[in-house]
């Protein structure tokens, strides 16, 4: 798992605006070995790792478990992922989203279009 260096600033900006941030990742248990090497994860309010729940994105059940576990209203949430299939699956569950291709400026434009303060 790698973090786009510009994404650190985005994460910090969102937290400064008061947003709650959650990670929903298709990761194996190896995630926990590397977790401490990714400082940006310290800004997240919760981590939801697929191997802990025995389901994967884009399966609908992973989103349902994610919403329930963190008491998240999908209609008040915004999902960022690097795969269109996962964004489509989130949308099917009522959550808007954006396919992130690594371009921070495009992501910030998506935030503006969705009235997300940064």
Compile the SSE list and pairings:
Layout: H1 5-16, E1 22-25, H2 31-34, E2 46-49, H3 50-53, H4 60-70, E3 78-81, H5 84-92, E4 96-99, H6 104-113
Briefly characterize the structure.
With 118 residues, the protein is of the alpha/beta class. Helix content is 42%, strand content 14%.
Structure description:
This protein is an alpha/beta fold and 118 residues long. The protein has one domain: Rossmann fold (3-Layer(aba) Sandwich). Helices cover 42% and strands 14% of the residues. The protein is built from six helices and four strands; from the N terminus they run αβαβααβαβα. Strands 1-2 form a two-stranded parallel ribbon. A two-stranded parallel sheet has the order 3-4. The chain is globular and about 35 Å long. It holds the Pfam family HAD_2. One of its GO terms (molecular function) is hydrolase activity. This is Putative hydrolase of the HAD superfamily.
Keyword list:
single chain; alpha/beta; Rossmann fold; two-stranded parallel sheet; two-stranded parallel ribbon; 6 helices; 42% helix
């Amino acid at each position: 798992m790698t973090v786009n260096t510009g994404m650190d600033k985005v994460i910090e900006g969102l937290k400064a605006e008061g947003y709650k941030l959650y990670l929903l990742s298709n990761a194996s248990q190896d995630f926990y070995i590397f977790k401490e090497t990714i400082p940006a994860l310290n800004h997240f309010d919760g981590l939801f790792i697929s191997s802990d729940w025995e389901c994967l994105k884009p399966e609908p059940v992973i989103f349902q478990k994610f919403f329930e576990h963190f008491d998240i209203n999908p209609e008040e949430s915004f999902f960022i992922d690097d795969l269109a299939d996962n964004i489509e699956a989130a949308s099917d569950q009522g959550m808007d989203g954006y396919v992130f291709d690594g371009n921070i400026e495009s992501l910030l434009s998506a935030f503006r279009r969705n009235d997300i303060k940064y």
